[in-house]
């Protein structure tokens, strides 16, 4: 029996690079080291950080281009449906599926068969619905019900239960490599929180760093919704866009995780929309950074400020550095500015302002 082309390429790639399915690697046979020689006795001595770095080294996501092509071909076959597609770029890391059980006590949503990272359509629809239910105007009740079905999730009256008329597709990264990153969450008082010690937490407790996998910042995802009504599909995408930018996806959203910005790029050759793209004049690095800063929520600033200041430093032009620094300070609230007055990045910002 002849293997499908993408399966053949996956097997061929594995024999050359020893890379493999990320889902199997994370949930079934992750071990330390870059070669099979590490699989035996010393695998137990590997730290969690080493193991997860090993995951990043060995995870094979090249199959993504075939998955996107298959999804786009399937959408194009739905002749009666009008798709609306848009690309969004992560501002910071993202982790969907943090609660999935694994050998590391935390997980990451990966395709069960192909192992690639994605955002499932149910979660995307839920994010759009949650935003729309709180922000919609009185005259938008009917479009809401047509897009999502019932007005209330817990509706028990069968006469009021309807199926939504918009399909929310899984969202996949638009690139095939360099998708993963690791982050660390440190529990400073593990004995206290686990009940092993009844004493109040203090500086004498030993911190317990927990390493977990994430999707790295700046990764772009392609989102598509489709409906027989182009008006409903457009409205659904509008609510989804606001949800992605203002609320984010996945876990740890309050510290900046999972938030997106609208990308200037279209879905290129993978786009299922036949609309002509609008040519937008290219922005220089300082203008892009200002746009990025203006898209952030105030709660995201403290956790991202140091990295943003590094980006400002790389601009080169003092005048443009000043413009970006002004934009960043304007985006902060008074409490953040007060707390950060002695931090190195805040001092650099003040220097940029002159």
Automatic annotation (TrEMBL):
Pfam family, any one: RAMPs
Coiled coil: none
Residues of the CRISPR type III-associated protein domain: 88-260
Superkingdom, taxonomy of origin: Bacteria
Alphabetical UniProt keywords: Antiviral defense
InterPro entries reported for this sequence: CRISPR-assoc_prot_TM1791, RAMP_III_fam
GO biological process terms held by the UniProt record: defense response to virus
NCBIfam families: cas_TM1791_cmr6
Protein name (Swiss-Prot/TrEMBL): CRISPR-associated RAMP protein, Cmr6 family
Source species of the chain: Candidatus Magnetoglobus multicellularis str. Araruama
């Amino acid at each position: 029996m002849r293997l499908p082309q993408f399966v053949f390429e996956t097997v061929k790639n594995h024999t050359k690079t020893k890379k493999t399915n990320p889902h199997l690697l994370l949930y079934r046979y992750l071990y330390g080291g870059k070669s099979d020689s590490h699989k035996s006795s010393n695998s137990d001595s590997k730290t969690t950080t080493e193991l997860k770095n090993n995951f990043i080294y060995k995870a094979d996501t090249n199959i993504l281009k075939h998955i996107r092509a298959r999804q786009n071909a399937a959408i194009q076959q739905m002749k009666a449906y009008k798709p609306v597609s848009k690309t969004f770029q992560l501002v910071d890391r993202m982790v969907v599926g943090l609660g999935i059980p694994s050998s590391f006590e935390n997980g990451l949503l990966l395709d069960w068969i192909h192992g690639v990272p994605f955002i499932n359509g149910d979660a995307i629809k839920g994010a759009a619905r949650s935003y729309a239910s709180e922000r919609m105007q009185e005259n938008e009740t009917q479009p809401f019900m047509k897009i999502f079905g019932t007005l209330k999730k817990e509706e028990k009256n069968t006469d009021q239960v309807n199926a939504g008329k918009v399909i929310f597709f899984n969202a996949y990264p638009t690139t095939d490599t360099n998708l993963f990153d690791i982050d660390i969450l440190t529990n400073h008082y593990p004995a206290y929180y686990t009940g092993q010690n009844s004493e109040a937490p203090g500086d004498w407790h030993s911190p317990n760093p927990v390493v977990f996998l994430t999707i790295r910042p700046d990764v772009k995802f392609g989102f598509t919704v489709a409906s027989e009504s182009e008006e409903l599909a457009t409205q659904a995408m509008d609510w989804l866009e606001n949800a992605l930018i203002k609320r984010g996806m996945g876990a740890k959203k309050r510290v900046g995780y999972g938030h997106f910005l609208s990308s200037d790029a279209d879905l290129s050759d993978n786009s299922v929309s036949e609309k002509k793209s609008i040519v937008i004049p290219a922005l220089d690095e300082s203008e892009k950074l200002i746009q990025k800063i203006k898209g952030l929520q105030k709660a995201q600033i403290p956790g991202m400020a140091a990295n943003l200041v590094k980006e400002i430093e790389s601009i080169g032009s003092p005048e443009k550095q000043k413009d970006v620094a002004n934009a960043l300070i304007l985006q902060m609230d008074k409490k953040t500015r007060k707390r950060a007055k002695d931090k190195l990045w805040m001092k650099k910002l003040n220097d940029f302002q002159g």
